[in-house]
From TrEMBL:
GO terms for molecular function: lipid binding. SUPFAM superfamilies: Bactericidal permeability-increasing protein, BPI. Residues 260-463 form the Lipid-binding serum glycoprotein C-terminal domain. This is Bactericidal permeability-increasing protein. It comes from Kryptolebias marmoratus (Mangrove killifish). The N- and C-terminal barrels adopt an identical fold despite having only 13% of conserved residues. The N-terminal region may be exposed to the interior of the granule, whereas the C-terminal portion may be embedded in the membrane. During phagocytosis and degranulation, proteases may be released and activated and cleave BPI at the junction of the N- and C-terminal portions of the molecule, providing controlled release of the N-terminal antibacterial fragment when bacteria are ingested. Belongs to the BPI/LBP/Plunc superfamily. BPI/LBP family. Its main location: secreted. One of its GO terms (cellular component) is extracellular space. The keyword Transcription does not apply.
Length: 469
């Protein structure tokens, strides 16, 4: 009945407890206007499918009472020159269509006189006013329904052709009234069916979207929408979970206050809570670890993962484990933490780096464990309907956790481990981040000229949209 993605962003009845959202979405008047334009085209096609059943009646003319029948009625043209969609604060949306017209053709027949022919029918002043409600279904997705529908037909004019048309045109007012009533009864059921058909499309909303084999992201509502005369603001959970196990992290979203921007159809604000919940999930799943071997180090690098290289900085390694290759294990100790400041996104990590010597029989001999505190800049961008990113190292701090080869100066290893992070670890992470993570979306929506800003505590995506089918 109206553009599907538009309806998704209307008044939803939440099934979750009210709290600060991880994601906020704003639909502006510009977005509603785009929905109206495409929605009217859809309604026009629906109205062309209106079926007026054959019917018969009686009318009195100068020669007495005649019985007539009308059949094979079909719509040949529909016009919707005036329409409007309005937000009803605190309620939902109202669609109004006025001054619409419909042209029809059909066949007529008068019984007993055995006379027949064709007719033209013009319907003018058609008005439709409907209110649409949206609520959550059993899966947490929105479902739409008609709250009220009113349709009125201003005038119906029929003109007979063929046979004694001049005679039957004299009692056309009787036919006009009968057709007007028959047509008026068909419109609201048609509107109701069109709205019901949207529920199939609404089920494509990724309320729970799988990210990979470890994580999924939930976009269910956490509170009722804020509907004003100019926009609709929705509050979504925007939280990552381990697949099949929804455990809340030990932190909560902070409040988001959207800036008063209205030049785009749609605004999506993702708070730092959303990526931080992802860090919590992946850390809990135990997948934020990486074994680093010498074949992962660029061949042009002068530093190799072997006891000879490390023996230059820690002589006892070369003495105790001469001529052996090495392996490093990088593992997070705490969930990574993302923070947003104006024009800047930063990721802080706390991890351990364990160094091993690889014995000829393949066993690993631990050498030392370092505590690694690092700060990286996150460069965020949009890839289709995904938010993606890449990292670059800002700074790193090493401290000695455990040594199995005696005491040594940790600072001498800074150059090696910065190289390992920059040339090995971060490129591997960036490959994964480039795949992106899904935004809240409907099946066939595309972003048009999106713009991404980093603000205090959240990132803001402003975009126009286009339906592709």
């Amino acid at each position: 009945m109206i553009l599907t993605w538009c309806l998704v962003l209307l008044a939803l009845t939440s099934t979750t407890l009210s709290s600060n959202p991880g994601v906020k979405v704003r639909l502006t008047n510009k977005g509603l206007e785009y929905g109206r334009q495409l929605g009217i085209a859809s309604i026009q096609q629906k109205l062309k499918t209106v079926e007026i059943p054959d019917f018969s009646g009686k009318a009195r003319v100068v020669i007495g009472e005649v019985k007539y029948s009308l059949s094979n009625m079909r719509i040949v043209n529909v016009g919707l020159p005036r329409s409007a969609i309005d937000l009803v604060p605190g309620t939902g949306v109202k669609l109004t269509i006025g001054d619409a017209f419909i042209s029809m053709k059909g066949n007529w027949r008068v019984k007993y006189l055995r006379d027949s022919g064709s007719f033209d029918l013009n319907v003018n002043g058609l008005t439709i006013t409907t209110s649409i409600a949206v609520k959550s279904d059993e899966t947490g997705r929105p479902a739409v329904s008609i709250v009220s529908c009113a349709a009125s037909v201003g005038s119906v004019k029929v003109k007979f052709h063929g046979g004694a048309s001049w005679l039957y045109n004299l009692f056309s007012k009787y036919v006009d009234k009968a057709l007007r009533n028959a047509l008026q009864k068909q419109i609201c059921p048609l509107v109701n069916k069109a709205v019901e058909d949207l529920n199939t499309e609404l089920k494509t909303l990724n309320v729970l979207a799988k990210v990979d084999k470890y994580a999924e992201i939930e976009y269910s509502m956490v509170s009722s929408p804020e509907v004003s005369k100019s926009s609709i603001d929705l509050s979504l959970k925007g939280e990552f979970y381990n697949i099949g196990k929804h455990q809340e992290p030990p932190f909560s979203p902070t409040a988001i206050s959207l800036p008063p921007q209205t030049d785009k159809m749609l605004y999506i604000a993702l708070s730092a809570f959303t990526p931080n919940s992802a860090g919590f999930v992946y850390n809990k799943a135990g997948v934020l670890s990486l074994y680093i071997t010498d074949d992962m180090v660029p061949k042009a690098s002068p530093f190799r993962l072997n006891t000879k290289t490390f023996g230059v900085f820690i002589p006892q390694i070369a003495k105790q484990f001469p001529g052996l290759m090495m392996k490093l294990l990088l593992k997070t100790e705490e969930s990574p933490k993302v923070s947003f400041e104006p024009k800047n996104a930063t990721l802080q990590t706390s991890a351990t780096m364990t160094a091993y010597a690889i014995q000829p029989n393949g066993t690993l001999s631990p050498l030392f464990v370092l505590n690694v505190e690092s700060s990286v800049t996150a460069h965020l961008f949009l890839s289709g309907m995904n938010i993606a990113g890449s990292l670059s190292l800002n700074k790193m701090k090493l401290t000695l956790g455990t040594s199995y080869v005696g005491q040594f100066q940790v600072g001498t290893l800074d150059t090696i481990f910065q190289m390992v992070l920059k040339m090995v670890v971060i490129p591997i992470v960036n490959v994964q981040l480039a795949k992106g993570y899904p935004l809240p979306a409907l099946g066939k929506i595309q972003l048009v000229n999106p713009q991404l800003q980093i603000l205090k505590d959240y990132m803001l995506i402003g975009t126009d949209v286009q339906l592709t089918g």
